[in-house]
Specification:
Elements: H1 5-43, H2 48-66, H3 68-85, H4 88-94, H5 99-139, E1 151-156, E2 159-167, E3 172-182, E4 185-198, E5 203-215, E6 218-229, H6 250-263, H7 268-296, H8 304-330, H9 336-357
Helix pairs in contact: 1-2, 1-3, 1-5, 2-5, 3-7, 3-8, 5-7, 6-7, 7-8, 7-9, 8-9
Length: 360
Amino acid sequence: MKLKILDRYLLKNFLLTYVFVAMVIVLIICVIDYTEKIDNFINKQAPARAILFDYYLNLIPYWANYISPLMVFIATVFFTSRIAARTEIVAMLSTGISFGRLLLPYFMGATVLGLLTFYLVGWVLPKANKVRNAFEQQYVKDEFFYDGRNVHIKIAPEVYAYLESYNVATKTGNKFTLETIRDNKLVQKLSADRIVWQPEKKKWTIHDYRIRTLDSLQEKLTHGTEIDTTINLSPKDFESNYHLFETFTLPELNSYIELLQSRGADGVEVYLIEKYTRFTQPFAILILTAIGVIVSARKSRRGVGWQIAMGFLLAFIYILFFLLSKGVAEAGNINTLFAVWLPNIVFSVIGLVLFKTLPR
């Protein structure tokens, strides 16, 4: 479809306003973040180059993406209320253009931003987050120590691993047990004094092991001093998982969710929320853009400031609603997919009601 002059005018100014709002808000966030972390940078002697390139150049796109639906909403309200105050919208509608047609260039801009956001959060930003998180763990957070005791992990549908303790530095597990349970019956049990990760082989070496195999009424016992084995367990399972969900590309995130579900592990909700949020974010941009145009398209006697203030209030309500539904989903009290989509569903209904009641 060929864009008309009016479409190009609205699309151009909408996108420019978004860029301006994004730059201002992200700049404010970075200044606040720097004032909070400057003591850590000084105490841990973080290099200036690492602070700038490893941290802040990766933090800027992170925040720009994280709050992109809200920045689009604020930009929409800011731009639309300005042209409404100059009676430009009245002039547009007086030519016979419907309000729905007026929304078209906004939707085009929101679609471009939504698709760009989905690509970035799915494949590009996770790589940047790895660098940023590594910097935070080295220069901001306290040094990580794995202090888990008596660890039980389901590593396959019928296989369970147990470790009394694990040493991250030496990649060694003590008092290791591997049990195979089928039809609620113990089929095989491997016990060892310790297991050690071999990075060159990408396998575990089991030391001083004993294997007990049960078959009906018969029992077989074998033992040895050392054996290599490949199991669905790696040293990464015992390393820091600080914001780990942010460092996965979309395919990697799906694989990790499948791994956690196959183990029957707790905490899979966090990764499901991250996955579903990446899909809902582009739709949130479209929905909030439409609401932004609707609430700010009418010329208000209270001025542009009132409409912008209302826009910030609605944005705050959306954030609060999203955080509440996310918290409930993480607690496992509601279906994760429904919880992530709930804010979009509710605000879609609000948008439809506002559109129906909008004076023509």
